[in-house]
Design a protein that fits this description.
The chain is α+β, with helices and mostly antiparallel strands. It contains eight helices and 20 strands. It has three domains: 67 residues, Uridine Diphospho-n-acetylenolpyruvylglucosamine Reductase, domain 2; 113 residues, Uridine Diphospho-n-acetylenolpyruvylglucosamine Reductase, domain 3; 104 residues, UDP-N-acetylenolpyruvoylglucosamine reductase, C-terminal domain (Uridine Diphospho-n-acetylenolpyruvylglucosamine Reductase, domain 1), CATH 3.90.78. Bound molecules: flavin-adenine dinucleotide.
């Protein structure tokens, strides 16, 4: 069979994951069109290989060798579909860079994504974990997505309900895991700005900068970028995948127990339950800035694991397990990994 997409073999992914881990894909393809994506999938079916979609590689931990076809989803396009006095409906294809898409939306007087500025990666991966920051999540503006079924090669539609979004979670991490490649996302943004400044230092920084003056969407976006640059390592300088663990959810009775022992514990209400600040737990377990060989926690934010240079996926996994163990020993709380692991240990859920 002839495949009208270039397939490379033994392709190095070291430049394609923000942790900078050495990893070789048995096969690699870049899909710039739906037809190229379909032919890449046909190739994988013929070879009976699993398919791993890859965007910006900012939320993955890669093993040394991936016996799979890795497909870099590079479909491009951003469109305003409709506009009325309340709502601007926009659609972006999966290969668009997320931050550039946010800036484009603001240029088009479409608001609601400003708090999600500077999150690395591409549009296609955003629904996978329902990206979120500074009190806003993708689900807040999400309408639908189009995703190619890996088995049939057909494009199917998912509305918000069928995506089953949760905190850093969606159906694509659970029941529909490894079954689809997202090709485009449609969002309903606001035609007028409704600032959401209640989270973290964002409101304080804007008040310092602007006094009583109401911030524009660009002011908010810039403030978010500045806070993020201050707190998080730049992957082009220090390999990392952002927050390595999710903030663990605990029941009210569990929260009472923890509060008695640790009155300063940092937590936020999450429905009936509580979300603990995982960074605080790691910090209090004495692990901030801790290092073992090439891997450590980031000096300014213990929730971020960094590759100091020369680490492998296995080194990162091993260090992350030590962090989980120490936090569990101290607090009796289990941390869950946020990035997706692609290596033999993938069967291990934590
Ligand atoms: C410095 C830093 C800061 C970060 N801050 C945040 C933050 O504030 N909030 C937040 O939510 N996340 C954050 N992240 C995590 C990451 O940026 C997001 O999860 C992002 O959406 C990942 O996009 P990506 O294109 O890099 O995905 P990748 O790492 O390429 O892929 C992640 C997962 O999605 C799958 N995938 C990718 N593309 C597709 C597709 N088209 N169809 C189906 N599956 C696909 C992959 O197979 C993989 O399982 C941060 C990461 C870094 C490095």
């Amino acid at each position: 069979m002839n495949f009208p997409v270039k397939i490379c073999d033994n392709y190095s992914l070291v430049e394609r994951n923000t942790l900078g881990l050495p990893s070789t894909a048995r096969y690699y393809a870049e899909a710039n069109t739906v037809a190229e994506l379909q032919s890449a999938l046909a190739f994988a079916r013929e070879k009976q290989l699993p398919v791993i979609p890859l965007g910006g590689g900012s939320n993955v931990v890669l093993g040394d060798f991936l016996d799979a076809l890795v497909v870099h989803v590079n479909l491009k396009g951003k469109t305003v579909l409709s506009r009325d006095q309340d709502c601007v409906r926009v659609r972006a294809e999966a290969g668009e860079n997320w931050h550039e898409f946010v800036l484009w939306s603001l240029d088009n007087q479409a608001y609601g994504l400003e708090n999600l500025s500077l999150i690395p990666g591409n549009v296609g991966a955003a629904p996978i974990q329902n990206i979120g920051a500074y009190g806003v999540e993708l689900t807040d503006s999400f309408v639908s997505l189009e995703a190619m079924n890996l088995e049939s090669g057909q494009v199917e539609y998912f509305d918000r309900q069928s995506c089953r979004f949760g905190y850093r979670d969606s159906v694509f991490k659970r029941e529909k895991r490894d079954q689809y490649i997202i090709v485009a996302v449609t969002l309903d943004l606001d035609a007028t700005l409704k600032p959401n400044l209640g989270y973290g230092q964002l409101g304080d920084l804007l008040a310092r900068r602007l006094g009583d003056q109401a911030p524009s969407a660009v002011d908010i976006s810039r403030a978010v970028c500045d806070i993020r640059r201050e707190k998080l390592p730049d992957p082009s300088e220090v390999g990392n995948a952002g927050s390595f663990f999710k903030n663990p959810e605990v029941s009210p009775s569990e929260m009472d127990r923890l509060k008695q022992e640790y009155p300063n514990i940092v937590a936020y209400p999450l429905g009936q339950n509580w979300k603990l600040a995982a960074g605080w737990l790691i910090d209090q377990a004495g692990l901030k800035g801790e290092r073992e060989g090439c891997v450590g926690t980031y000096q300014k934010q213990a929730l971020v694991l960094v590759n100091h240079g020369g680490a492998t996926g296995r080194d990162v996994l091993s260090f992350s397990r030590q962090v989980q163990q120490k936090v569990n020993e101290k607090f009796g709380v289990q941390l869950e990994r946020e990035p997706r692991l692609y290596m033999d240990d993938d069967k291990i859920p934590l």
